[in-house]
Specification:
Strand content: 25-35%
CATH superfamily of the largest domain: Bira Bifunctional Protein, Domain 2
CATH architecture of the largest domain: 2-Layer Sandwich
Number of helices: 15
Oligomer: single chain
CATH topology of the largest domain: BirA Bifunctional Protein, domain 2
Number of strands: 21
Length: 504
């Protein structure tokens, strides 16, 4: 490995420490408190007028460092917070203080023992009586900046370049506390979703990630091969068909939170590997699912943020009330002047769009043309939580048709902040109708078309045993996190997003 000049200096410090019998990577560490606990302990003692300051042993990473004569200060951080260490020659002796100045750098992990005090400037600190290295950082934390505190230059580590941040998330997390908060919010969000669904009688389950037939969504799968079985398998694009099999088995309310994989483009709201929530609810329809969605997002926002309002892209979004409901046909008519019910064929709708001055891609299916209009004219304008409902049957092969109108299905998509957040159906439970739709979808699309929905004979077999009427729901957890944390890129809320290989 090639080392930089700074890294070589730190490697020399490691050699020097070991030569002096001071191990830079000791096996044991024994802090008695987190930094937050130690601070609270001191404040409690101070409030009681306790004359004996608490004695503690603390550990953390050095985030700022300044030394002057017979005194040195550094701030350390752990997962609970930040605290100042004060190192004075009076308590440590000149040899120990010099050892600190010579061996310790930004990014190093230190363990320090002493008493908690409040300095003359009013800062709660640890007056250090003993210390040792826990882990020497060979590579300096990225992009150091200087700040003047009390007339002294203090060096802090920062990292702002998105490319470096995503590729070196470990460094990003180390130097940017706000990034750590995103992933604490992520954990809180999945916990809140589980609590909400568990409290309403849903059962959390796990379904296969490797599947012999992909289905449940319109997406191109990743393909792998099982050597012993001599069988191609697909990374799942959805949980749907397996979760609905469980309804046949009389598990009436089921959900899963897990990873889906789609071999599609990368964008600010798409990542090939993403986290999804899906639930299926026997004896419910899409109207009941709409009501539950409002309730669930209101609960999650309150649990994660402590309020039902958040800011996304400079606009306040309110999860506290009822969502706006827009019928798809009327929404497109208002936005484009095109009544999709009057143009039933691919060619007729394409012509109507051109007559309105739009520029549709040629030779697209009617469903894809409608999807394109939704994306161009409706989705960007749905800032406040909005349900768009009643979709064309030809782009919703797993949804139940509306009574009296077989061309329209009971489906909704939920939009927030100008992007799709969730998707739900009154699920099709007629095995004969489902088989006919699989056959129809197979004829309508070419083999390489990602919209093609393969026939799943085992799923049809399950349906023939009898599937209760039900409502199904899917939501991207990553996009929900974007909304709750005001992040405009999905890469900000995924710990290790997929990136192109660097071109050397």
């Amino acid at each position: 490995m090639e080392y930089t000049d700074l890294e070589k200096i730190r490697l020399q410090k490691i050699e020097k420490m070991r030569a002096a019998g001071d191990e830079p990577y000791p096996t044991r560490s024994n802090p008695t408190h987190t930094l937050k606990q130690a601070t609270e302990l001191f404040k409690e003692a101070e409030a009681k007028g306790d004359a004996s300051p608490p004695e503690v042993t603390l550990a953390g990473r050095i985030r700022s460092l300044r030394a002057m004569g017979k005194l040195a200060f550094c701030h350390i951080e752990d997962s609970s917070g930040r605290l100042q260490l004060m190192l004075r020659v009076n308590e440590l002796g000149e040899e120990a203080l010099n050892r600190f100045k010579e061996n310790f750098d930004l990014g190093d992990y230190i363990e320090a023992s002493g008493v908690m005090i409040r300095t003359r400037t009013g800062e709660v600190s640890l007056q250090t009586k003993d210390f040792h290295m826990l882990a020497k950082a060979i590579t300096p934390l990225p992009a150091a900046k200087d700040e003047v505190i009390d007339g002294e230059v203090v060096r802090h580590a920062t990292l702002t370049d998105p490319e470096v941040r995503y590729r070196q998330r470990y460094a990003d997390l180390a130097v940017n506390p706000d990034v750590r908060e995103i992933f604490r919010a992520r954990a809180a969000t999945t916990r809140a979703l589980r609590d909400f669904l568990d409290s309403r009688g849903f059962l959390e389950v796990e379904t296969p990630i490797l599947q012999p037939i992909y289905g449940g969504a319109a997406a191109k799968p990743f393909v792998t091969h099982h050597n012993q079985l001599k069988q191609d398998l697909y990374l799942r694009i959805s949980f749907e068909l397996y979760l609905k099999r469980l309804l046949v088995g009389m598990l009436d309310r089921v959900y899963e939170i897990g990873r889906d994989f789609r071999n599609e483009g990368v964008s600010f709201k798409h990542n090939p590997e993403f986290t999804q929530l899906e639930f299926y609810w026997a004896y419910a329809d899409y109207l009941k699912v709409m009501d539950l969605t409002e309730e669930m997002l209101r609960y999650v926002s309150q649990e994660v943020l402590g309020k039902t309002k958040t800011t996304f892209g400079g606009q306040e979004i309110d999860f506290g009330g009822s969502w706006r409901r827009v019928e798809l046909r009327q929404g497109l008519l208002d936005a484009t002047g095109i009544d999709i019910d009057q143009h039933r064929s691919d060619a007729a709708l394409e012509k109507a769009m051109r007559d309105q001055g739009l520029k549709p891609k040629p030779n697209q299916s009617r469903g894809k043309l409608i999807d394109a209009m939704i994306g161009d004219f409706l989705e960007p304008n749905f800032i406040q939580p909005t349900f768009l409902y009643n979709y064309p049957r030809d782009i919703s092969p797993l949804a139940k048709s509306k009574p009296g109108n077989p061309a329209v299905v009971e489906r909704f998509e939920g939009f927030v902040g100008g992007m799709e957040l969730c998707n739900a159906f009154t699920e099709l439970n007629d095995p004969l109708d489902q088989e006919a739709r699989f056959i129809e979808m197979g004829r309508a699309y070419e083999d390489e078309d990602e919209e093609r929905h393969p026939m799943d004979d085992d799923y049809l077999r399950a349906m023939r045993y009898g599937m209760p009427p039900n409502g199904g729901f899917g939501m991207g957890i990553d996009r929900l996190l974007m909304l709750l944390t005001d992040r405009r890129s999905i890469r900000e809320v995924i710990l290790f997003p997929h990136l192109r290989e660097r071109e050397e």
